[in-house]
Amino acid sequence: MTSQHAVPVDWFMNTKSFTVVCPNHHAEPATISSFCSMQLKDILKILGVLLVPLTLGVATTVLSMQKTHLSQENRQKDIDIAQQQRQQGAYLADQAEKERILATYLYDISMLLLSNNGTLDKGSIIPSVVRAKTLTTLLQLDTQRKRQIILFLYETKLIMRNNEQPPINLVDADLDNLDMGLPKSKQKLYKIYEVLQIQLHGASLVNSSFAWRRLDFSDFSQTYLTNADFTWTDLSHVDFSYALLSKTDFTNATVSKAIFAYANLSGSNLSDEQLSTTLTFQSALLPNGTTAPLKNLVKNGDAEETCSNTSTGSPLGCPLDLQ
Fold first, then answer.
1. What one-character-per-residue DSSP string does 27-75 give?
2. Is the Cβ–Cβ distance between 318 and 300 less than 8 Å?
3. Euclidean distance between CA atoms 37 and 42, whole angstroms
4. Residue ranges making up the domain that contains 232
5. Is 179 helix (H, G, I), strand (E, B) or coil?
6. Which residues fall within 8 angstroms of residue 250, CB to CB, at 6 or more apart?
7. Which of 193, 233, 236 minimizes the C-alpha distance to 211?
8. What is the CA 146 to chain-centroid distance, rounded?
9. Alpha carbon of residue 249 to chain centroid
10. CA–CA separation, 134 vs 137, rounded Å?
């Protein structure tokens, strides 16, 4: 049998070479000078030769993975940038189109007014044409440009109340989120600004704002004013009859001689003190959820108390003798 020589540990630690036994069972015991014998440095050289490509392979794999990951990140960045550019391009195109629509509208109506000496013939179809064009244009614009149209119509006296020519009918006009309030920088001087006696009968003005404005004698009858803002607004003699005013803010608003007949004031913060200064709020749905009688009560909180001691009432829930 082929004998194999174990290498003592102390010998291995104190020599620079050791014996490597060949696997061939016919071979003689290997010695330092035998064919199968190698020095430690030779083994290290072989290991070095083997480790170099292995290391290179691992490094190449790692670098390849990093490159792939970086490529994916760059590709995603390119996709994001391209998407942002498309969105920016679409936004700019949309803004340009809205600006074109606004400019075309202002030009067309201006030319129409100039050709009619700045007035509209009550008996002609021109007011109907202006109304149709106005409603169609409003549907295509944002709130900022809608504001410009409303100011234009007002300044040309097409929606000014109590003027000599008939105002343009804006029933069903989409004016939601319209902001006609004064900027904060001008609010302290609001009393010096021109009164807007504006005619917006029947328009949709949900979430709109007229804060710090003077709207004396304006017409908001049958309008949709849910969540509207009338803080610090002068609403003297304003007509809110049949208007939807639920959750509307009337903080510090002046409502002297205003008309709230049949209006829906549920959830609004119109106070008893403010209601007492109005011209009428008959049959209105009051902030506390009760319905006002056909004849005004001084305080909306008294409505239930006034009607609670009777079993005979009108369809509004209050005695008929209150009329």
1. SPPP-TTSTT--BHHHHHHHHHHHHHHHHHHHHHHHHHHHHHHHHHHHH
2. no
3. 10
4. 170-323
5. strand
6. 230, 231, 268, 269, 270, 271, 274
7. 233
8. 17
9. 20
10. 5
Asked whether 165 and 157 are in contact (CB, 8 A), the reply is yes
Best CA proximity match to 191, nearest among 244, 148, 233, 149: 233
**Residue 146 belongs to some domain of the structure:** no
Let me know if residue 227 belongs to a domain.
yes
Query: Which pLDDT belongs to residue 64?
Result: 79
Beta-carbon count within 10 A of 15 CB: 13
At 150, list the tokens.
């409303």
Backbone angles phi, psi at 198, to 5 degrees: -100, 145
How many angstroms separate the Cα of 30 from the Cα of each of 6, 8, 12, 41, 45? 11, 15, 16, 18, 20
Residue 90 belongs to some domain of the structure: no
Tokens for 314, please give them: 């009108």
pLDDT number for residue 121? 78
Q: Give the contacts of 243 (CB within 8 A, at least 6 positions apart).
A: 220, 221, 222, 223, 224, 225, 260, 263, 264
128: region left, alpha or beta (phi > 0 left; psi from -120 to 50 alpha): alpha
Q: Find out whether 231 and 248 touch, Cβ atoms under 8 Å.
A: no
Model pLDDT for residues 199-230, shown as the tens digit of each residue: 999 999 999 999 999 999 999 999 999 999 99
Length of the chain counted residue by residue = 323
> Which CATH number covers residue 260?
2.160.20.80
CA of residue 87 relative to chain centroid, distance: 17
- pLDDT of 117: 86
* Residue with tokens 């409003």, as numbered in its chain: 138
Q: Is residue 197 part of a domain?
A: yes
**Predicted TM-score of the model (pTM):** 0.69
Query: Number of structural domains, the chain?
Result: 1
